[in-house]
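Next comes this protein.

***
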Amino acid sequence: MPKLDLSKIPFQSRTSYPGKLADAVSGRSGQALGDAGGLTQFGVNIVRLEPGGLSSLRHYHMEQDEFAIILSGRCVLIDDNGEHEMLPGDCATWPAGEANGHHLVNKTDAPASFLVVGTRTPTETAFYSDLDMMVKDDENGFSFTRKDGSPLTPDQIGDDND
Protein backbone atom coordinates (compact mmCIF):
# COMPACT_ATOMS: atom_id res chain seq x y z
CA MET A 1 0.00 0.00 0.00
CA PRO A 2 1.72 3.19 -1.14
CA LYS A 3 1.78 6.09 1.28
CA LEU A 4 0.69 9.36 -0.28
CA ASP A 5 2.75 12.47 0.40
CA LEU A 6 0.03 15.07 0.89
CA SER A 7 2.56 17.89 0.57
CA LYS A 8 3.08 16.89 -3.07
CA ILE A 9 -0.62 16.79 -4.00
CA PRO A 10 -1.79 20.33 -4.80
CA PHE A 11 -5.11 21.82 -3.76
CA GLN A 12 -6.92 22.95 -6.89
CA SER A 13 -9.94 25.17 -7.38
CA ARG A 14 -11.99 23.96 -10.30
CA THR A 15 -15.60 23.36 -11.20
CA SER A 16 -17.66 22.20 -14.14
CA TYR A 17 -20.58 24.53 -13.29
CA PRO A 18 -21.60 26.66 -16.26
CA GLY A 19 -21.51 30.46 -16.39
CA LYS A 20 -21.61 32.43 -13.19
CA LEU A 21 -22.85 29.40 -11.25
CA ALA A 22 -19.15 28.61 -10.89
CA ASP A 23 -18.85 31.66 -8.61
CA ALA A 24 -20.89 29.84 -5.96
CA VAL A 25 -17.96 27.50 -5.24
CA SER A 26 -15.12 30.02 -5.53
CA GLY A 27 -14.20 29.39 -1.87
CA ARG A 28 -13.70 25.65 -2.43
CA SER A 29 -10.50 23.80 -3.30
CA GLY A 30 -9.76 20.11 -3.39
CA GLN A 31 -6.90 17.70 -3.08
CA ALA A 32 -7.49 14.62 -5.30
CA LEU A 33 -6.10 11.82 -3.17
CA GLY A 34 -7.78 8.97 -5.04
CA ASP A 35 -6.42 10.19 -8.37
CA ALA A 36 -2.94 10.58 -6.90
CA GLY A 37 -3.09 7.00 -5.63
CA GLY A 38 -4.39 5.60 -8.92
CA LEU A 39 -7.85 4.67 -7.66
CA THR A 40 -10.49 4.16 -10.34
CA GLN A 41 -13.56 2.72 -8.58
CA PHE A 42 -14.17 5.59 -6.17
CA GLY A 43 -12.97 9.13 -5.66
CA VAL A 44 -11.32 10.37 -2.47
CA ASN A 45 -10.75 14.07 -1.95
CA ILE A 46 -9.91 16.46 0.83
CA VAL A 47 -12.01 19.57 0.30
CA ARG A 48 -11.08 22.86 1.89
CA LEU A 49 -13.75 25.54 2.35
CA GLU A 50 -12.73 29.10 3.00
CA PRO A 51 -15.02 31.23 5.19
CA GLY A 52 -18.33 31.54 3.36
CA GLY A 53 -17.40 28.71 0.97
CA LEU A 54 -19.82 26.11 -0.41
CA SER A 55 -18.89 22.53 -1.23
CA SER A 56 -21.29 22.59 -4.19
CA LEU A 57 -24.72 23.73 -5.18
CA ARG A 58 -27.34 21.61 -3.35
CA HIS A 59 -27.60 18.37 -5.33
CA TYR A 60 -28.21 14.63 -5.21
CA HIS A 61 -26.84 11.77 -7.31
CA MET A 62 -28.82 9.04 -9.03
CA GLU A 63 -25.98 6.51 -9.50
CA GLN A 64 -23.25 7.47 -7.04
CA ASP A 65 -22.98 7.16 -3.26
CA GLU A 66 -21.24 9.89 -1.25
CA PHE A 67 -19.66 9.92 2.21
CA ALA A 68 -18.07 12.86 4.05
CA ILE A 69 -16.28 13.31 7.37
CA ILE A 70 -15.31 16.69 8.76
CA LEU A 71 -11.55 16.96 9.37
CA SER A 72 -11.16 20.49 10.69
CA GLY A 73 -13.21 23.56 11.42
CA ARG A 74 -16.98 23.70 11.40
CA CYS A 75 -19.38 23.23 8.52
CA VAL A 76 -23.13 23.31 8.21
CA LEU A 77 -24.75 20.49 6.26
CA ILE A 78 -27.81 21.88 4.49
CA ASP A 79 -30.20 19.30 3.10
CA ASP A 80 -33.92 18.83 2.61
CA ASN A 81 -34.30 18.32 6.38
CA GLY A 82 -32.71 21.65 7.34
CA GLU A 83 -29.34 22.71 8.73
CA HIS A 84 -27.06 20.42 10.74
CA GLU A 85 -23.84 21.54 12.43
CA MET A 86 -20.90 19.33 11.48
CA LEU A 87 -17.77 19.24 13.67
CA PRO A 88 -14.51 17.28 13.27
CA GLY A 89 -15.34 13.58 13.28
CA ASP A 90 -18.96 14.08 12.22
CA CYS A 91 -19.96 12.03 9.17
CA ALA A 92 -22.75 12.12 6.62
CA THR A 93 -23.82 9.68 3.89
CA TRP A 94 -25.88 10.15 0.77
CA PRO A 95 -26.98 6.91 -0.93
CA ALA A 96 -27.37 6.95 -4.71
CA GLY A 97 -30.91 7.71 -5.84
CA GLU A 98 -32.00 9.33 -2.58
CA ALA A 99 -33.52 12.68 -3.55
CA ASN A 100 -32.10 14.72 -0.66
CA GLY A 101 -30.33 17.77 -2.04
CA HIS A 102 -27.31 18.59 0.09
CA HIS A 103 -24.15 20.61 0.41
CA LEU A 104 -21.73 21.78 3.09
CA VAL A 105 -21.25 25.46 3.90
CA ASN A 106 -18.56 27.14 5.98
CA LYS A 107 -20.41 29.83 7.92
CA THR A 108 -17.44 30.64 10.16
CA ASP A 109 -14.52 33.04 9.83
CA ALA A 110 -11.92 30.23 9.68
CA PRO A 111 -11.16 27.58 7.02
CA ALA A 112 -12.73 24.12 7.32
CA SER A 113 -11.93 20.83 5.61
CA PHE A 114 -13.56 17.47 5.04
CA LEU A 115 -12.78 14.17 3.38
CA VAL A 116 -15.29 13.07 0.76
CA VAL A 117 -15.50 9.63 -0.84
CA GLY A 118 -17.77 8.88 -3.78
CA THR A 119 -18.53 6.13 -6.22
CA ARG A 120 -17.18 6.49 -9.74
CA THR A 121 -19.59 5.19 -12.36
CA PRO A 122 -19.28 5.36 -16.16
CA THR A 123 -22.38 7.56 -16.29
CA GLU A 124 -24.15 9.75 -13.76
CA THR A 125 -27.15 12.01 -13.46
CA ALA A 126 -27.45 14.54 -10.65
CA PHE A 127 -30.20 17.03 -9.88
CA TYR A 128 -29.93 20.45 -8.25
CA SER A 129 -32.52 21.10 -5.56
CA ASP A 130 -32.60 24.89 -5.69
CA LEU A 131 -32.35 25.28 -9.48
CA ASP A 132 -34.12 23.88 -12.50
CA MET A 133 -30.92 22.07 -13.48
CA MET A 134 -29.53 18.59 -13.89
CA VAL A 135 -26.17 17.34 -15.03
CA LYS A 136 -25.34 14.22 -16.97
CA ASP A 137 -21.81 12.88 -17.02
CA ASP A 138 -20.67 10.30 -19.55
CA GLU A 139 -17.78 9.59 -21.91
CA ASN A 140 -18.40 13.02 -23.51
CA GLY A 141 -18.08 14.91 -20.22
CA PHE A 142 -20.54 17.03 -18.26
CA SER A 143 -23.79 18.28 -19.83
CA PHE A 144 -25.93 20.73 -17.86
CA THR A 145 -29.60 21.14 -18.82
CA ARG A 146 -32.95 21.90 -17.23
CA LYS A 147 -34.41 19.01 -15.27
CA ASP A 148 -36.60 18.11 -18.26
CA GLY A 149 -33.52 17.93 -20.53
CA SER A 150 -34.12 21.21 -22.37
CA PRO A 151 -31.26 23.70 -22.72
CA LEU A 152 -30.34 26.09 -19.94
CA THR A 153 -30.94 29.75 -20.75
CA PRO A 154 -28.35 32.47 -20.08
CA ASP A 155 -30.46 33.88 -17.23
CA GLN A 156 -30.47 30.48 -15.50
CA ILE A 157 -26.68 30.35 -15.36
CA GLY A 158 -26.07 34.05 -14.91
CA ASP A 159 -24.36 34.29 -18.27
CA ASP A 160 -25.03 37.77 -19.56
CA ASN A 161 -21.99 37.80 -21.88
CA ASP A 162 -20.14 40.39 -19.81
Observations:
- The mean pLDDT is 95.
- The first strand starts at residue 28 and ends at 32.
